[in-house]
What does this fold into?
Amino acid sequence: MRSGVFRRGYMTVYLSLTLMVLLSLILTLVEGARISATRMKAVCVADIGINSVLSEFNKALFEQYDLLFVDTTYCGGAGGIDAVQAHLAHYLTMNLDESTPSLTRDLMGMRLESAAILEHALATDNDGEAILRQVADYMDTTLKGVLISPVDDVMSGFDHGGFNYDTSAMRSEVQSQIDSTEIPMVENEEGELVEVPLNNPADNVNSIRSAGILGMVLDDTSVISDVIVDTSEYISHRELIAGNGISEEERSVGRMAGPLTYDEYLFEKLGRYDQLKEGSLLAYEIEYVIKGNDSDWDNLEDVCRTLSLWREGANFTYLLSDSGKQGEAEALAATLTAVLMVPELAEPVKWAILLAWAYVEALQDIKILLEGGGVPVIKTAETWHTDIFSLFHPKSALKSYPGQEGPLYGSYLHAMLLMTGFDKVFPRSLDIMEMDVRLTPGNGAFKMDYCLQSFLADIVMGSTHGHRTEVVRRSGYYYA
It folds into this structure.
């Protein structure tokens, strides 16, 4: 009996000691699991909160320009990184409080202690590096960025097509020769001595050079957009806020778009005279990027003036090779100077006529381009349209040739964009983005320099059980 009781007592003490060890092990495992679960949840909540912030990208900017940025004004607020930090804290708190079922909430008892954004990169930092990186990735993924052959054809005009021929200098030289030649004097009805009029048709053409080209080449100027903007409201004319710039981590991901790629991107995204864009403020956006005036009319007018310089040079280069047209000019000059009996004037008058003829043909070229036709870089007898009598009535002499082949207006405009300094193209293109996004609902105060590309967040979460977890994440819109 005694030995049996002893054995049962012995077993009870053994079991008690064993249970203590097992219970300690179980509690240790449970505590370890709670710590691991707390850390894992902290990381998950941090990632969800950060992704929630990045999911608030400006929809209008993305739909129109395929750019992903968070507008830190959040549709018209004060804006700034503090607003983003507040949104991040909100999402973190919501995920901590709402994501844990009530039965398990006490197991971890997590709470947000702090959420700070230590660094951030804005769209316009480092001369718009974030934008240029996104554009490069977009153009790569959409197989864009190759210059089309008509643009190459237009650019060839500067090599051997005469686009850079200085007709202005030659015109001044010729006019100086004419002005320095003594003209015979005759007595008029009042008994006064006056010069015999030369009646040079080149003078008639030169008198319209300072007039508006659009009024000359278009039959109805009422079709031209009359939109005027206040350029001081946009990014190229105001002082910008700045972040910390793109991190080295982001720089390792991709590359920036160069001027050629960026110009191709603009030609795909912006409107122009021959291809209007729906939902734009300015009708002629590419023209604005090139010229930077505050009105559609002035931008299109200035583009046409540049076209007139190019085409006048090219046309004069052609006239130098056309002996027939030179003969016509020489005959007209001889007739005009014969009346004055000043034969030495014949040669400079001839060149004045040829220069004026080249300009009238340039007006004809612009009319063709604006009406949807093509104009070859180098003219031939078949593609030359004006005659020498056009110099007497230039506007009425211009005709429509919509079916003519050659580089179109868009190709000439593309070449002009390529030749515009990137220090002008880039900020003006951001003006256009601001203009168009501001037209969309809720974006009336949109500013590109308030757009967030990426940020470095330091998030600290604690628990009722004394465990603290810190998560540091740099996140943004990275492209593969």
Observations:
- The mean pLDDT is 88.
- The first strand starts at residue 70 and ends at 71.
- The chain is about 55% helix and 10% strand.
- The first helix runs from residue 2 to 54.
